Amino acid sequence: MIDASESLTQRVEPLEAGEHVIAARFIGEQPVLALAGGTVTLGMNHQRVQPHGDAAILVASSDDTMLLTGGDDGKIITTKHDGSSTVLGDEKGKWIDAVAIGTSGATAWSTGKKVVARDGKGALKEWLAPTTAQGLAFAPKGYRLAISHYNGSSLWFPNTEGKPEFREWKGSHLDVTFSQDGRFLVTSMQENTLHGWRLADGKDMRMSGYPSKTRSFSWSHDGYWLATSGADAAIIWPFKDKDGPMGKAPRECGVRHSKVSAVSFHPRALVVAIGYEDGCILLCRLTDSAELLVRPAIQNEGRVTSMGWNKTGNRMIFGTEEGAAGVLTLP
Amino acid sequence: MSDKIPVTVLTGYLGAGKTTLLNRILTEPHGKKFAVIVNEFGEIGIDNDLVVGADEEVFEMNNGCICCTVRGDLIRIIEGLMKRKGKFDAIIVETTGLADPAPVAQTFFVDEDVSARARLDAVITVVDARWLKDQLKDAPEVKNQIAFADVIVLNKIDLVSADELVDVEKNIRAINAYATIHKTTHSAVSLDAVLGKNAFDLDRILDIAPEFLEDVHVHHDESVQSVAINLPGDIDPEKFMPWLNEFTQAEGPNILRCKGILSFKDEPKRFVFQGVHMILDGDLQRDWKADEVRQSKMVFIGHKLNRAVIEKAVEACRV
Questions:
Q1: What is the DSSP letter of B264?
Q2: How far is CA A275 from CA A46, A216, A293, B234, B288, in A?
Q3: What's the average model confidence in pLDDT over A31-35?
Q4: Which of A53, A116, A168, B209 has its CA 20 to 30 A from that of B316?
Q5: Residue A228 within any structural domain of the chain
């Protein structure tokens, strides 16, 4: 049980989102919300910009300098902390299914089978996936993109002519993520499981037991842990050893009677923010499983859809399906 | 339950009049806002604000159920649409003329995120009265589309004689014993004939057309047929339910759809079930009325169904 004295609820300042929050992030020290209706809000006093006009924002990613959004207008747009935006690509009204940000300003997006990689200088490369690309992730080093799709994932070097390397595993793969050391690739699957590959030898890892799909991943700052959504607790897999999670049981943090819908590791400590379908948010410390309440479950405000920390880790932003949002400032 | 977005699936072979029906639905003064999901290669313009192109990507669920196919693109599109709640009241999915409706229907049962937010209202199949006979010979898709239908819009009836029309209806009934048939020209049916049917809702399961339960010898289509059974009196759930489960598991790939209203021994309520391939759903519903004859009615629609075997198995469950 959560002691009232261990509550951070008084330290949450609400933000007015008003519609489905696609992404809640910090760009530098600026809290930013990407909203489904096409609006991006910046700062605590809700400066609003409309990079996609009145089209919907479907997917978003971010790094320390920009927010990257893909819309149902087919546009891929970056927005900076000051609200200025740049259109990186235009897929002529086709829904953007996934976006990703890499190092050195590289970005990528996909619509249907078409995958586009754009390097930091703006050079575009295209690849057609065998089936719809569901998820995209850049490798932590080098200009290399992982694409998850039906029956496996592909690893593509956009600047080489060679065919992308195909890693097969039967089923429909949704989101994809690289471990921070680049040794492992992990996908979430339609069949309520995770699949992992150790890239050096292609060894398969099955991480199963979820009651629903995993749609949120987060790596710990040291890269040793992967927190995942989809169960009645945050399921946290160990990746420190050479075999990763193979043959190991995951940690479970923040067990409640509601499914975890979003996870976000603190950027400097082994603390994970856990958001639930009932709107509750907890901070959980991995070392002793101590829990702090950030936000109680609130009826009709929907599941927590996104959370993000600032660089130093003293502030965290969150948003929900029904348009509630807020910023936590740690003491 | 009720705030789930209703989804109408519109099927029909090439040229049957699907798009005409769709445009009719969209332009009637009903005050409703629709999100329309069309196949990417549709030729005729659709007059609606929210139209989404789909690529009809069908994949197998890797869950050990071989007939369990879903539309991956539909899962993504509905997920995307649900982020824009309030922009529409209902969804219409138009499939290509060659599409099998099963993966579309199964998507609404198999995917949890979709089934939590949207519910399948009905499968509407538009049938070309003039060309149905030829299509049944050449196009296996047409049989599946008719077999799957809750509502059949029998279109272009002005192009056939009265006798031919009777024949066409018989052809349809041989495949599907329970669908409601509306005879039209230019896809002109009233909207309440095709929308808000709740055909997949166990509470509202439509009674199975009784005339076809008696006449089992309409000319048989060899590849897709209805096996309709009507048993007066009660059946034993302890015997029937295990049989039904086993039967749908074993014959799932061959069973396109099934529906039934059952009278269980010592049970004041009607038991209602329905299924798509191996996926089965069933529950006790309203009480049997005092003036109602207690009986069990069921229909299995599929390929290579052995009527004699099914009849014998069900007969063995009688009390």
A1: B
A2: 23, 10, 11, 51, 47
A3: 97
A4: B209
A5: yes
Q: Looking at CA atoms only, how far is residue A265 from chain B in angstroms?
A: 25
Whether residues B80 and A131 touch (CB distance < 8 A) is answered with no
Question: How large is the average pLDDT for residues A119-141?
Answer: 96
Is there a contact between B84 and A56 if contact means CB atoms under 8 Å apart?
A: yes
Q: Which helix (H) or strand (E) holds A67?
A: strand A67-71
Interface of A with B in 142-161 (CB under 8 A): 150
Query: Nearest CA to CA, how far is A71 from chain B (Å)?
Result: 10
What is the ipTM score, two decimals?
0.89
* Contact between A324 and A275 (Cβ < 8 Å): no
The residue among A22, A54, A58 with the most chain B CBs within 10 A of its CB, best to mutate, is A58
Name the residue among A322, A308, A273 with its Cα closest to residue A28.
A308
Number of domains in chain A: 1
Question: Which one-letter amino acid corresponds to residue B265?
Answer: K
Can you give the pLDDT at residue A1?
44
A316, A294 Cβ separation under 8 angstroms = yes
Query: Would an 8 Å CB–CB cutoff place A193 in contact with chain B?
Result: no
Residue B113: both structure tokens together: 């995120």
| Contact state of B57 with A132 under an 8 Å Cβ cutoff | yes
pLDDT, mean over chain A: 95
Question: Tens digit of pLDDT for each residue in B19-48?
Answer: 899 988 988 888 889 999 988 655 567 777
Task: Give the three-class secondary structure for A243.
Answer: coil
**A257-261, A279-283, B61-65, B309-313: which has the minimum mean pLDDT?**
B61-65
Classify residue A324: in a domain, yes or no: yes
CATH number of the domain where residue A300 is located: 2.130.10.10
Mean pLDDT for chain B?
85
Q: Degrees (nearest 5) of the Cα angle A189, A194, A198?
A: 120
Q: Quick check: is A39 in a domain?
A: no
* Token duo for residue B112: 């949890």
As a whole number of Å, the CA-based R_g of chain B is: 19
Q: Which domain holds residue A245?
A: 4-17+97-329
Chain-chain contact of B113 with A213 (C-beta, under 8 angstroms)? yes
Summarize pLDDT for A84-113 with one digit per residue, the tens.
Answer: 999 999 998 899 999 999 999 999 999 999
Which of B134, B202, B141 shows the shortest CA–CA distance to B18?
Answer: B141
Q: Which residues of chain B have pLDDT under 50?
A: 1, 210, 212-219
- Domains parsed from chain B with CATH numbers: 5-200 (3.40.50.300), 210-315 (3.30.1220.10)
| Partner-chain contact B59 A37, CB within 8 Å | no
A2 pLDDT higher than 70: no
Percent of chain A with pLDDT over 70: 98
Cα B275 to its chain centre, rounded Å, is 10
Chain A partners within 8 Å of B80 (Cβ)? 56, 58, 72, 95
Cβ pair A100, A127 in contact under 8 A: no
Residue B157 Cα, gap to closest chain A Cα (Å): 38
CB atoms within 10 A of CB A176: 25
Query: A259 in a domain, yes or no?
Result: yes
